[in-house]
Amino acid sequence: MEKSETIGKLTLALSKVQAQLKPAKENSKNPFFKSSYADLGAVWDSVRKLLAENELAIIQMPTDVGGLTTILSHSSGEYMSSTMYIPSKEDAHGVGSAISYARRYALASVIGVVTGDDDGNGAVKGTPSVSKKSTSKPKLTDSQYKGMMKAIEDGKGSVVEQKMGGYTMTKTQKDNLNNVLKLSKTLL
Fold first, then answer.
1. What pTM, to 2 d.p., does this model score?
2. Among 24-33, 45-54, 78-87, 178-187, where is mean pLDDT lowest?
3. Residue spans of beta strands (DSSP E) within 55-119
4. Which residues contact 124 (CB under 8 A, 6 or more apart)?
5. Is 42:24 a contact under the CB 8 Å cutoff?
6. H or E element in which residue 30 lies
7. Non-local CB neighbours of 76 within 8 Å, separated by 6+ positions
């Protein structure tokens, strides 16, 4: 997590939002788990007005190394930000779905929204079994490798460490990334 030097005004504004929060409405169905959940729009609907009234904004953007950065910003200039790893997907639809899913969870988490969300069952053991495509990891491309190296240079080594496990890498790629990560930690 990164934050501004002070966060007192931001924290006060966030506490006012949290005091008025209502659970996000479960407006979507997950037929696989036979459950209901609050989608991204419903989570936003539950917080948008309260954030504006308390001079808070959320900024969310995908990173160049397969993560999502969420920034909670206050009109005073104070902010807090966190970057989370998004498991890699192989097609555009899968990537978009993973980003939306991460945005929903990050937004709810940062603000403190309760959703009664059951569609995260896929992360739990004992979920219904379905036939899946190959579970092999995608190969790390040269472009992704260069993006990871740049992210380490930019101080985002922790995101790279999380992301590395989602790819099949050559020995050289893995060794180089690990060596640069190790070196970057000694420079901190």
1. 0.64
2. 178-187
3. 56-62, 67-74, 79-85
4. none
5. yes
6. strand 28-30
7. 9, 10, 55
